[in-house]
Design brief:
The chain has 135 residues and is of the alpha/beta class. It is built from 6 helices and 4 strands, in the order αβαβαβαβαα. It has one domain: Dna Topoisomerase Vi A Subunit, Chain: A, domain 2, CATH 3.40.1360. Helix 1 crosses helix 6 and helix 3 packs across helix 4. This is UPF0292 protein N5910_06485. Keywords: Magnesium, Metal-binding. Pfam families: Toprim.
């Protein structure tokens, strides 16, 4: 079970890496989320929602300059509300906001983590469960 889940999460991380390499912006909540994703090999481009001098509409406008945007906010209530608002704003500006990676990651990790910054440690725990003697 853990091996399959680990592979599925790694597939989503690989997709994020690929999309980032293609220049697709990844909307995240803050600096710790960016650090966690970089630790996993995802190099952005990132657009941070928290700690920005821009309001949500301005962030959506900046993100919508790209034809496609990945929304990867946290899995808690605040993150879900942010994702919903950003999705509507970005879509109304004629860009395609993609929530699919967020939804899949959230579905796989919902009972264990609530934010993006916890992904690296969660993946390490899964690796240890799969093969405790290698880690």
């Amino acid at each position: 079970m853990s091996l399959m889940k680990l592979q599925q999460i790694n597939d989503e991380i690989d997709e994020l890496k690929y999309q980032g390499e293609q220049g697709v912006p990844i909307l995240i909540e803050g600096r710790k989320d960016e650090e966690a994703l970089r630790e996993l090999g995802v190099n952005g481009p990132f657009i941070k929602v928290s700690g920005s001098s821009l309001n949500l509409s301005e962030i959506a406008l900046r993100a919508a300059m790209s034809s496609r945007v990945i929304i990867l906010t946290d899995f808690d209530r605040k993150g879900s509300e942010l994702a919903r608002r950003l999705y509507m704003d970005i879509q109304s500006l004629g860009s395609y906001p993609d929530l699919s990676i967020r939804r899949r990651l959230m579905g796989m990790t919902r009972r264990y983590i609530k934010d993006i910054q916890s992904l690296p440690s969660y993946i390490e725990r899964l690796k240890f469960q799969v093969s405790p003697y290698l880690y």
